[in-house]
Amino acid sequence: MRILGIESSCDETGIAIYDDEKGLLAHQLYSQVKVHADYGGVVPELASRDHVRKTLPLIDAAFAQAGCGPEDLDGIAYTAGPGLVGALLVGTSIGRSLAYGWDIPAVAVHHMEGHLLAPMLEENTPEFPFIALLVSGGHTMMVKVAGIGQYEVLGESVDDAAGEAFDKTAKLLGLDYPGGPRLAKMAEQGVAKRFVFPRPMTDKPGLDFSFSGLKTAASITIRENDDDDQTKADIAHAFQTAVIDTLVIKCKRALKQTGIKRLVIAGGVSANTQLRLQLERVMKGMKGEVFYPRTEFCTDNGAMIAYAGMQRLKVGQFATLDMKTKPRWPIDSLEPI
Ligand code: KG4
Ligand code: ZN
């Protein structure tokens, strides 16, 4: 079976064609970074308009790359939520309409399920059950995954998401949007322990996260110190270390609590090299294993939507004809497969 995947929940238009026997046949990505850079963050209306411009040309490019056409498809998957409502509406209306026109089923995909299943596109895939740490720009969640669609949320952020905290702190350090990867790069030049930030919510039991206090601590430190490059790098280092330590402590806790030894990290922040290194070290010590997508599939992309859509297409979980988006959509409300 073959499916077209459409991702348009935020500032990336991602299109992919996935075949359940041959694997990924095409993957096209257009990032709106330049559109939003002047504003220091995503402007929802500009995002929607750019998705309108880019989606159909990218679908054509994906067909050309895969060497197939609409007649070879068995379904279309689109991101229905969570995300920016206007941006979601573009992918939803294009995906739903093409499926109607081509007389094939459509599948409404949950963006975070896409992230969660992205490691399944790699060679070495995790068996169920596993623990998933989902760290993106909009969400931070610890999930116990018993199977596809069987998600128990063990903890989540009570305020900013990890990626959001990275982006906001990067902005305070004078870095351009999107700041997360830029802050990570700056941190490489930083001196360890010149500044030390708190590890929020690690002294209390539980698996929830909070990152807004960390951003405030960074903001105060930035204000009270010189703004030379070395100081900025040292602050970036302290911030990144605090976020990663916090995530690592919570992962260890979740694994211990559930007795599971397989960990998946996914979402934009899972591209962070230091986070990967630390979690690899922890899992080695536990004789467990950590799984993550290749870097380009950590951040938003169409391949993860096509993969997640395929799983639901195979069992007949089709979208209805209405073009419904779900800007808020709890992951534990999904149907099991
Ligand atoms: O998953 P994603 O592409 O979009 C959402 O679903 O939100 O995640 C984007 C987030 C941004 O906040 C970005 O700064 C962050 O992931 N990010 C990183 C890195 N690469 C992307 N944060 C820290 N280190 C990185 N290397
Ligand atoms: Zn995402």
From TrEMBL:
Highest taxon of source: Bacteria
Name listed for the protein in its UniProt record: tRNA N6-adenosine threonylcarbamoyltransferase
Gene3D superfamilies: 3.30.420.40
Gene symbol of the encoding locus: tsaD
Stated family: Belongs to the KAE1 / TsaD family.
Main location: cytoplasm
GO MF annotation list: iron ion binding; tRNA N(6)-L-threonylcarbamoyladenine synthase activity
EC numbers on record: 2.3.1.234
Entry's Gene Ontology BP terms: tRNA threonylcarbamoyladenosine modification
Species of the source: Pseudoalteromonas distincta
Keywords: Acyltransferase, Cytoplasm, Iron, Metal-binding, Transferase, tRNA processing
CDD domains: ASKHA_NBD_TsaD_bac
Reaction(s) catalysed (UniProt annotation): L-threonylcarbamoyladenylate + adenosine(37) in tRNA = N(6)-L-threonylcarbamoyladenosine(37) in tRNA + AMP + H(+)
Cofactor note: Binds 1 Fe(2+) ion per subunit.
Cleaved signal peptide residues: none
